[in-house]
Design brief:
Layout: H1 2-9, E1 42-50, E2 57-67, H2 72-81, H3 96-113, H4 120-135, E3 139-141, H5 143-148, E4 160-162, H6 169-184, E5 188-192, H7 212-230, E6 237-242, H8 248-267, E7 288-293, H9 295-303, E8 306-310, E9 317-322, H10 323-337, E10 341-344, H11 345-350, E11 375-383, E12 388-390, E13 396-398, H12 400-420, H13 426-435, E14 438-443, H14 445-451, H15 459-487, H16 493-513, H17 521-542, H18 557-561, E15 576-580, E16 586-590, H19 593-600, H20 605-618, H21 646-656, E17 668-670, H22 676-688, E18 693-694, E19 696-698, H23 709-725, E20 741-748, E21 751-759, E22 765-772, H24 778-795, H25 800-807, E23 816-820, E24 823-826, H26 829-841, H27 844-849, H28 855-864, H29 876-879, E25 897-898, H30 910-918, E26 935-937, E27 940-942
Parallel strand pairs: 4-5, 5-6, 6-7, 7-10, 11-14, 17-19, 20-25
Antiparallel strand pairs: 1-2, 3-11, 4-11, 8-9, 10-18, 12-13, 15-16, 20-21, 21-22, 23-24, 26-27
Length: 953
């Protein structure tokens, strides 16, 4: 067997020997003699994608061909992201047929060249079945496949990379270069810096080493530069440091200190918003940081004992620290800025199939791929909702048999891709061809659970998720063993055979003891049990073709391509969705999964209609007519009044983890009110539950952190001394009876109000009046008091720019979208008010120094690189004044309110729609490409408008 299959096992293009019979491919969806394209209705569509902020066209291609059942969003994203060739040229792809054929034909040819198929007929069935599954959105390959396969450029198929770095300058410089080449290609990488000696150790020359944290600066700057030079999204990278590294405390604090710097610079008037001109002065912003903890450390935390930090050269302890204190610092840093995450080293390596070839020390940027250094993983994800069926009696079932067949098909294709794939470095290519790591996963789990009447945070929901994950991985390794019998096991298998079979037994044992809950998950568990029995039997005989088979990735852009309601392992975002319509426009709809869930729970058609109507009006199920309170939890979502608890997310990860080769890309969202102790609990429970990696994000933790008590004390000590020295007393200058003013109506985050700003006839702003809510309410009273305080201050000579610098960027609810074309987003009502006052009353140079510009000025900056108006536009008289009080009131200043034809609040994505419905503000960035509010996908952010991501492929 070894002699027969050694060539193909290394990924060569040579044919298998005569002893190689190849695979028999079974039909799943297709009909003999009928091509999948002939079974669907095709139509032509125009794709025109605009930036809603300024109306500019980001992308346009007319007359593209897609099936009639593909959504507008899926068509837009596939056309703009995946079609190859210059737009407008004859080479440009214009049909989904061309895209699928380009990819599928490459896979088929490589499979035939490398002896995967028993006959030409099997190759044709493989071709048709793969085409059908992609055409009908049953699964999708990861983005690099669509970008590169079948083109003249290097055929890179992997989205996930792990690098390595040793304790030498040559290796560190190689790290910078290799990482840069991966970023240039639009992918991301992770690595562990723990081999680099600490700043507490000596160099051979006798001086102190710089330490890994200092070298992180260079890599961070490189990532930021390559990102800004070639793309608008951030470079995706993961940096890991072992908990026993002597520089671990400095590593933990890197981002906390930078967040403090961001706040200080923002308060000083610098533009520190995401993508701002001055944000590049802040370091360590292009990476996710994670601390790699081991069982020894976690047990020391549990017992309250000390823990040794070890020399990188000798391995001997050079410092003892209190484990609980160090663990607390990790939680405090995560509370303050969401970094570092945590990775559990012993758990990860307990499930390692190839330990004889090296330990697993790092992960890709999203933490789902974990294997050897200098390796890569290509991904594919299945759409779980495609396997939910109703039987003749109207009862639901998950089609486990068809699901397993599709998994076999996809794993076969993924393994074939390694035969023809190109890689960014020679070392990564060698390792990947030798171990053939794959990452099959799924999307739409949240939608599936809701549609089947399961709460995301429930035993039944976790049982179904665990069963599907177990069946997926078991079937993957079964097919991997069958492939090993045909084209040979992976090159590193012989050395790691015992360990690999041990891990297969661990998966099988976990499957055997898993809890069965109901009629939906029990048949899936049975199919998974059978698959794992086959894995053990076939693996003993033939070995395995792949060292790794499965992960749970974010499924960002490809999730939109498959029209999935939810990404990866995530729950549903909200019950009401934003949907684009053919021909332009949009509408809000209640999730299609809601009626299915209600029917599963036993509600009649009339009751379902009433509950859906209530959700459409209120955005939630609370007090929905006829809905039993015990069923509320089924409709809990990631956002909203009934959001899933943080520990609910952790428990779901724990349900899936024992049945995955790799790990799970997921961030546990926590409310702003979460405490450091709660973060400690989540990190500790993650270890207890056997999760491989965890990251948390506390809402709004990236801005507005409180001053430390020490700074407050220092300020309190200084102010009395200043008061004793200063003798000057200001004189109030009252406004005349008649004074010019501007009345502005505004909407911030759905809250409406009016602002009247009156000025001296020739001497600038003198008073402000704010009208919010009903007279007599607490909010109205506070706004009246605030207005009086500001007005009196202005009349006593407090410069307007002082108020602007203090009150802009203040963050609290209501916040979000506004109806002001100059200020589309506001972090609070106060933030909006003082930005508007700055635009109306401060001279250009003053407010420009504060980072406040009108829409016209921002557009001018995009076109010319300068915010400044031309000579004929410049307010020379205003610029000549030294203080804002001397700015002449705008000529349009009358008592008439500012009017606009725009709606008070307009949604452009599901996230923005949720904000409108719930009166809340999601802490997510705006898309650089189209201006749409993004939503979380795993540990990244995804734009529903154009498919862009914040760092994941």
């Amino acid at each position: 067997m070894t002699e027969t299959t050694s060539g193909p096992a290394r990924g060569s293009r040579s044919k298998g020997s005569k002893a190689n019979k190849g695979l028999r491919i079974e039909r799943i969806h297709t009909t003999p003699g009928v091509h999948p394209y002939d079974e669907v209705v095709w139509e032509r569509r125009d794709v025109v994608m605009t930036n809603w902020r300024d109306g500019s066209v980001n992308f346009e291609q007319r007359g593209v061909e897609f099936p009639d059942f593909w959504s507008v969003n899926a068509v837009n994203i596939v056309t703009s992201k995946y079609f190859r060739g210059a737009v407008g040229s004859p080479e440009r792809e214009a049909s989904l047929k061309q895209l699928i054929d380009r990819v599928v034909r490459t896979y088929r040819k490589s499979g035939e060249d490398n002896g995967y198929f028993a006959s030409p007929a099997d190759a044709e069935i493989f071709d048709h079945e793969l085409t059908y599954a992609l055409l009908h959105q049953v699964f999708s390959f990861n983005s690099p496949v669509w970008f590169n396969v079948g083109t003249k450029q290097p055929q890179q198929v992997s989205a996930c990379f792990i690098l390595s770095v040793d304790d030498s300058m040559e290796s560190i410089l190689d790290w910078y270069k290799e990482e840069g080449m991966i970023f240039k290609g639009g992918s991301g990488a992770g690595l562990n810096l723990s081999r680099i000696r600490s700043s507490k150790e000596l160099l051979s020359s006798g001086g102190n080493a710089s330490g890994p944290v200092s070298f992180m600066r260079g890599a961070d700057a490189s990532a930021g530069t390559i990102k800004s030079g070639g793309a608008t999204r951030r470079a995706a990278k993961m940096v890991v440091l072992d908990v026993d590294h002597p520089d671990v405390e400095a590593f933990i604090e890197t981002k906390v200190k930078e967040e403090e710097k961001i706040r200080a610079l923002r308060d000083a008037g610098f533009d520190m918003d995401l993508g701002g001109d001055d944000i590049t002065s802040v370091q360590y912003q292009n990476a996710n940081n994670s601390v790699r903890v081991n069982d020894t450390f976690m047990k020391a935390v549990e017992s309250g004992s000390s823990f040794g930090l070890r020399s990188r050269l000798t391995g001997e302890p050079i410092e003892e620290v209190d484990a609980k204190s160090l663990f607390r610092k990790m939680a405090e840093a995560a509370w303050a800025c969401a970094d570092p995450g945590i990775q559990y080293d012993d758990t990860i390596n307990h499930w390692h199939t190839s330990p004889e070839s090296g330990r697993i020390t790092a992960s890709n940027p999203c933490s789902e791929y974990m294997h050897l250094d200098n390796s890569s993983c290509n991904l594919a994800s299945l759409n779980l909702m495609k396997f939910l069926q109703d039987d003749d009696a109207g009862n639901q079932r998950f089609d486990a048999e068809r699901f397993a067949k599709v998994v076999e098909l996809v794993i076969t294709a993924m393994d074939i891709s390694i035969c023809f794939a190109d890689f960014p470095t020679e070392k990564i290519g060698e390792t990947t061809r030798a171990f053939r790591q794959l990452g099959i996963g799924y999307a739409n789990l949240g939608a599936l659970l809701m549609a089947t009447g399961h709460a995301y945070d429930s035993d039944g929901g976790r049982a179904l998720a665990g069963a599907i994950t177990s069946l997926m991985t078991g079937t993957s390794y079964k097919r991997s063993a069958e492939l090993a019998a045909v084209v040979g096991p992976y090159d590193g298998y012989a050395r790691n055979a015992d360990a690999h079979k041990r891990v297969m037994k661990q998966h099988s044992d976990a499957n055997a003891i898993a809890q069965r809950m109901d009629d939906l998950d029990t048949p899936v568990w049975a199919a998974a049990t059978e698959a794992w029995q086959d894995v053990l039997r076939l693996g003993e005989k033939s070995g395995f073709r792949n060292a790794q088979a499965s992960v749970l990735a974010p499924t960002g852009t490809i999730g939109l391509m498959m029209d999935c309601d939810t990404t990866g392992v995530e729950p549903d975002l909200a019950l009401v969705k934003f949907k684009k319509l053919v021909g332009g426009g949009s509408m809000q709809i209640v999730n299609n999964t809601v009626p299915k869930a209600l029917k599963r729970l036993g509600y009649q058609e009339e009751q379902v209609e009433a509950i859906v109507a209530h959700i459409a009006d209120h955005g939630n199920v609370i007090d929905a007519p006829g809905l039993k309170p015990e069923h509320y939890e089924v409709f809990d979502c990631a956002m909203g009044e009934r959001s899933i608890s943080p520990m609910g997310h952790v428990r779901m990860m724990a349900a899936a983890q024992p049945f995955l080769s790799g790990a799970i890309s997921k961030t546990v969202n926590m409310p702003e009110s979460a405490t450091v102790e709660e973060i400690e609990e989540i990190y500790f429970e993650g270890w207890k539950l056997g999760i491989k990696a965890l990251a948390i994000y506390r809402d709004n933790c990236k801005v507005g952190q409180p001053l430390s008590a020490k700074k407050k004390e220092e300020k309190a000590q200084v102010e009395p001394e200043v008061e004793k020295v200063v003798e000057y007393r200001p004189v109030r200058k009252r406004l005349p009876k008649g004074r010019p003013g501007i009345t502005t109506s505004f909407t911030v985050g759905g809250a409406e109000g009016y602002m009247t700003a009156n000025s001296y006839p020739d001497d600038g702003l003198g008073e402000v009046f704010l009208k919010m809510s009903k007279q007599g309410s607490t909010l109205a009273g506070m706004m009246d008091a605030f207005s009086i305080a500001v007005s009196v201050g202005l009349q006593y000579g407090v410069p307007l720019e002082t108020y602007v610098s203090k009150f802009t960027n203040m963050r609290f609810e209501p916040a979000g979208m506004t109806d002001d074309p100059d200020l589309r987003m506001a972090q609070s009502i106060v933030d909006y008010i003082f930005r508007r006052l700055a635009l109306d009353f401060l001279p250009f140079e003053t407010r420009s120094a504060l980072g406040i510009h009108s829409a016209e000025e921002r557009q001018r900056h995009l076109e010319t690189g300068s915010y400044e108006p031309s000579d004929d536009e410049m307010d020379v008289e205003g610029l000549a004044q030294s203080a804002p009080r001397h700015v002449e009131a705008p000529k349009s200043s009358t008592s008439q309110p500012r009017t606009t034809s725009e709606p008070a609040r307009e949604a452009h994505s599901s996230t923005e729609l949720v904000e409108i419905q719930l009166g809340m503000n999601a802490d997510a960035p705006l898309c650089f490409s189209c201006g749409t509010k993004m939503r979380r996908a795993g540990s990244c952010y995804l734009c529903e408008g154009c498919g862009s991501t914040s760092g994941c492929s």
